[in-house]
Write a structure and sequence with these properties.
The protein is built from 16 helices and two strands. With 322 residues, the chain is mainly α. The longest helix is centred in the middle third of the chain and has 28 residues. One of its GO terms (molecular function) is membrane insertase activity.
């Protein structure tokens, strides 16, 4: 990685290495083997949880931006119809200006769904530079950011299922010596899990938590491209990721998937298939549709029944005494 980029990543490298060191020391204090790959794996997973927990406000903002984007789909279609067939530069500039004004009005943008990913990338690349340089640092007996030489040596020698956490799929194939099949198998399994979880997360969003208007909107093509291109990019790039980094990214994707499943189940987009499914579950429990005040429908029925049941009771006539 070029030196200017490494310099820009320095604060993130310190944060990620410090978190990794703190969690590793914590597990060691609890009695786990300091040099075990599973101890380092647990530390990496907790680093993932810490980073993703810190990004929850960004995720909430992303949800709001996505729903705003779906809400303005009818206006975008009108804008497209307005400039349909007008290919001159003036018309194209006018359409882009109106489109930007529309995004500003609804406080959203074309790439709002990518925001958490873009924010997470510096942390990802910082951890990549830390984990991929442990072998070199071990040979020079130096530390990496917050990691001491002892930490570097411990991590570089640690392994799970016979695969060192600092090894990569590509370097193992090009090592020139006997191929460590444990590294190949573990790396492939982690890459498949990483790609599958990322693909399913995007597909779940598109099939269950988007309105019909959004599915037919002008930006649906970009969403479909992202669904296929991003997993492909990370799948190809994964052959050069250390096993430890594959663990981080897979854990991050699983967190994203779980977070999104919770949102889709309990706070779906209005007008989406997920909202219809939620209302079916609420109806089965005797609850009103989401967004409707509890008891509103029951109150109307109850008032009607009360009005119907009100009758004037006949007065009992006093019998004439003989």
């Amino acid at each position: 990685m070029p030196e200017p980029i490494l310099w820009l990543l320095t604060p993130f490298r310190w944060v990620m290495s410090w978190l990794l060191m703190i969690f590793h020391e914590g597990f060691t204090f609890l009695g786990l083997d300091a040099d075990s790959g599973w101890t380092w794996t647990l530390a990496i997973i907790l680093v993932t949880v810490g980073v993703r927990a810190a990004l929850i406000p960004i995720f909430a903002r992303q949800i709001r931006a996505q729903r705003a984007m779906q809400a303005l789909q009818p206006e975008l279609r009108k804008l497209q119809a307005k400039y349909k067939g007008k290919k001159d530069q003036v018309s194209q500039q006018a359409m882009l200006a109106e489109q930007r004004a529309l995004f500003k009005k609804h406080n959203t943008g074309m790439f709002s769904s990518c925001l958490p990913l873009l924010i997470q990338m510096p942390f990802f690349f910082s951890l990549y530079t830390v984990l991929s340089s442990t072998s070199k640092a071990k040979g020079e007996n130096v530390g990496i950011a917050a990691l001491t030489p002892d930490h570097v040596r411990s991590f570089d020698d640690s392994s799970i299922f016979g695969a060192r956490l600092s090894d990569t799929f590509l370097n193992t194939l090009n090592s020139g010596g006997p191929t460590n099949m444990s590294v190949i198998v573990v790396a492939l399994v982690m890459i498949v899990l990483m790609v599958a979880s990322q693909f399913y997360t995007q597909r779940q969003l598109m099939t269950k938590n988007m309105t019909q208007e959004a599915l037919e909107g002008p930006f649906m093509r970009q969403q479909k491209m992202m669904m296929y291109i991003l997993p492909l990019v990370f799948g190809v790039g994964g052959i050069n990721f250390p096993i430890g980094l594959l663990i981080y990214w897979t854990a991050s994707n699983i967190w994203t998937l779980g977070q999104q499943m919770w949102v889709i189940k309990y706070n779906p987009t209005p007008g989406s298939l997920a909202e219809k499914e939620l209302n079916i579950r609420r109806k089965a429990k005797g609850l009103p549709p989401i967004g409707q005040k509890k008891g509103a429908a029951e109150t109307v029925v109850e008032e009607a029944e009360q009005a119907k049941s009100k009758r004037t009771q006949p007065q009992r006539k006093n019998r004439r005494k003989k």
